[in-house]
């Protein structure tokens, strides 16, 4: 089985839906969040070789977005803003410690996330 060269992979929802329906992370700042992580990781000489950052479509918990997930830990974050990027990069991506105040816990009874 192939092994990734990346130590961590960040997926950030940038999905956008038409106005007036179910909320979407793209409309709540997902694209700015993605841009912030891309800049922060690319600007760090070590992390740029260890962390992949990918924009993705819907991750599920639309009502709590913008959402993102970091693998291999499977650490979910919700309600993240561009002002949280530096803290997540420093604490989690560089330091290995997920940011508890932004952590998202899935409700097993909630099919919508």
3D structure, described in words:
- This protein is of the alpha+beta class and 113 residues long.
- It is 24% helix and 19% strand.
- Strands 2-1-3-4 form a four-stranded mixed beta sheet.
- A hairpin with a 3-residue loop joins strand 3 (67-71) and strand 4.
- The radius of gyration is 14 Å and the shape is globular.
- The chain starts with 7 loop residues before the first strand and ends in a 19-residue tail after the last helix.
- The mean pLDDT is 90.
Strand composition percent: 15-25%
What number is the mean pLDDT? 90
- CATH class descriptor: Alpha Beta
Helical segment tally?
Answer: 3
User: Helicity level, as a percent range?
Assistant: 10-25%
Report the CATH superfamily: Glutaredoxin
Termini Cα gap? 31 Å
The low-confidence parts are: none
User: Quick one: biggest sheet?
Assistant: 4 strands, mixed
Number of strands: 4
What is the string of SSEs from the N terminus onward?
EHHEEEH
Tally of distinct domains: 1
- Widest beta sheet: strand line-up: 2-1-3-4
Quick structural overview:
With about 110 residues, this protein is α+β, with helices and mostly antiparallel strands. Helices cover about 25% and strands about 20% of the residues.
Detail the topology: elements first, then pairings.
Layout: E1 8-13, H1 30-42, H2 47-50, E2 51-56, E3 67-71, E4 75-78, H3 85-94
Parallel strand pairs: 1-2
Antiparallel strand pairs: 1-3, 3-4
